[in-house]
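Researcher: Next sequence.
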Amino acid sequence: SKLIYGRDFASSASGYGFDENGHGSHVAAIIAGDRDGSGMRGVAYDATLYDYKTDNNGDATLEAISTDASTAAIFNQHVTDGIQVSNNSWGSNVKITNTTASAIRSAYPSTINAMRSAQSNGTLIIFAAGNDGWLQPNADAAAAHLITELANEWLVVVAVDSTLTETNYTNRCGVAYNICVTAPGGGDNAADGILSAQANGTYVRASGTSMAAPHVSGLAAALMEKFPSLTAAQIATRIKSTASYSTLTGSSGQTSANSSAATMQAIFGHGLVNSGRAAAAIGSYVYATGSNLN
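Model: Next structure:
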């Protein structure tokens, strides 16, 4: 029940705003589902949604991000549409530690330029870390770890379950810990999944870092709405700086009380995002610069 803008980059039969798979609807509702008194609501329920459709038939192949040129076209569209938060619940099957900066630059020069143009225009890029149970995020999600000019306006997101315990499926922050945070993604048990809207209008539970990333995207969008004078980099910094390990537990029982900071960083990055602390920190920043709070 929300007006959606966008563009169909996959040349599908149905066009943008129609989801043959269901994954996109589930993610989009976590970000910005209407606060209409029925079902669930999104984190940033007032946000405007743009659907950049990358799949043309509901299968697992994302036709519109299969080449450098096609992926670059999507991020160039971010500039045209003035996108503030870019949620990316997709990624490669290569670990970030199994590639290099030179390999990424050689394979995706146009995409890197388009991403940087979007960031310079005010976009914060947020990626799901991946669901392979790896010690590292995938190479798409953590590209900014190696392509360092992208890092200031980039966040990678790993998942915890409803008890705030690391799931078996989630990739860890690994070497990309400095651009990585943690959010609820649903548990390994389907009954502990994140409840959100499905393509046919029903509500279903699903788990994955795909569900964790839109929690952070929604938080970023809500903060940008509240504090429009701040840049995407400043929003990312405050999301990271106000995150915490205090309530988190690793899959083998790691906590901030029994493990080193390096261990917790490798699992959870900066820690679990906290909307209240992020807003308070931004509020303090805005007050200190003499701006008005609304």
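Model: The longest strand covers residues 154-160. Confidence is low (pLDDT under 50) at residues 285-294.
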